[in-house]
Design goal:
The chain is built from 11 helices and no strands. It is mainly α.
């Protein structure tokens, strides 16, 4: 089934066009996670600080697949809004589904960034730049709007009950961090001087926006786990979403430090290079701690009977951001340990992507992922 975390079934009467496109009724914004997870496989592979024969070509194929997926999901979501507007409105008013609108921004940004790093081998630098400018501009604008709109809805319309915080809440506020991490690809393309400096500092502003919002939400998420116990089985993969802002922020400071010398004065450029290490190392340490905790919870959920749902795509993009973060630390510190960490995480990423991709195709062909979502199964009291 196409499971939304904590989704409540709604019975609004469908629009007349719904009869023509019944398969699109339950295509929600969570489907953009498949685009994100595919694009990060290409982008993270290109960022690895090691040379693997054939990897670049494989990443190019995955980038092309991500671009096709983006087009397909955009078309499906447009059909969803046109034919099932009642369901689309219900999604916006559902506190379990609305945060997934942040995935639209990140899908656009991820495909745009991978076009600049990998796709340019196919389409050329100028075409890749044009695609990235369009997707980055649209993704950033949507991400900033969602980072305000979804928390606003949470306060004035959703009113979630105490103790119901979910890692999904991070999705709207982490989108600007993706913009901060991918913006450095465009800095050298801008005119020297004010334009480059403005872009650099705008990325740091989005970095701060996302980081502080994440720091507000993480205590709520951990308190929910401690006081309420493990998440329901189907929601357990969402624990990996916490890795997203951790890995992406480490990636952002590293990427920004790379382009700072050409965009800002010498005193600040060297300070930003030091900040990339002083910030990135401890945050990567916490990311590894959370990876171990989330992985343990996933093993427990699998033993308790967790089956596939679209939440499994949460295993991909967040891990991919840790790959690019570790690769950045390897570049800035020269430590081989970070190189091998990036490689190990990339192997985990590709494995998770392959499993999620195969299971998604199987669910599409069987029709299970296009059916109405079911309430998630509760976690067992104790797994032995």
């Amino acid at each position: 089934m196409a499971i939304f975390p904590q989704t409540r079934t709604r019975t609004s009467a469908p629009y007349p066009a719904a009869a023509r496109l019944p398969s699109l009724r339950h295509i929600g914004p969570n489907w953009y996670a498949s685009v994100m997870g595919t694009a990060i496989v290409a982008g993270a592979g290109a960022a690895l600080p090691v040379h693997v024969p054939g990897l670049r070509a494989a990443c190019t194929v995955v980038w092309a697949l991500a671009a096709l997926l983006l087009a397909a999901v955009l078309a499906a979501r447009a059909g969803h809004w046109a034919a099932h507007r009642d369901q689309a409105h219900a999604h916006l008013l559902d506190p379990a589904v609305a945060p997934f609108y942040g995935c639209l921004s990140m899908a656009l940004l991820a495909v745009g960034g991978s076009t600049m790093t990998v796709g340019r081998d196919v389409v050329g630098h100028r075409a890749a730049l044009a695609v990235d400018v369009v997707l980055y501009s649209a993704g950033t604008a949507i991400g900033l709007a969602v980072a305000v709109a979804i928390p606003y809805l949470m306060v004035v319309r959703h009113r979630p009950a105490p103790g119901t915080a979910s890692p999904v809440w991070l999705l709207p506020v982490v989108a600007p961090m993706v913009s901060a991490a991918l913006g450095p690809l465009l800095v050298p393309e801008l005119p020297a001087g004010q334009w480059q400096e403005a872009m650099l500092l705008a990325c740091y502003a989005m970095f701060g926006l996302s980081l502080l919002a994440t720091l507000m939400m993480l205590p709520l998420i951990f308190a929910r786990l401690v006081h309420q116990g493990p998440l329901p089985l189907a929601l357990t993969p969402t624990l990996f979403l916490v890795l997203g802002p951790l890995g992406q922020s480490t990636t952002a400071v590293g990427q920004l430090a790379d382009v700072a010398p050409g965009a800002i004065g010498a005193p600040y450029a060297s300070a930003l290079g030091a900040f990339a290490v002083l910030y990135g190392v401890p945050v990567m340490g916490f990311a590894l701690l959370w990876l171990a905790l989330a992985g343990s919870m996933v093993v427990r959920a699998l033993r308790g009977g967790m089956t596939f749902s679209m939440t499994w795509w949460g295993f991909t993009f967040p891990v991919g951001t840790c790959v690019t973060g570790a690769a950045g630390l390897a570049r800035h510190t020269g430590l081989t340990a970070f190189t091998w960490l990036a490689v190990a995480l990339y192997v985990l990423l590709v494995s998770a992507w392959a499993v999620a991709g195969v299971r998604t195709l199987r669910g599409l062909f069987s029709g299970a992922l296009l059916a109405a979502p079911q309430a998630p199964r509760p976690a067992t009291a104790r797994t032995t």
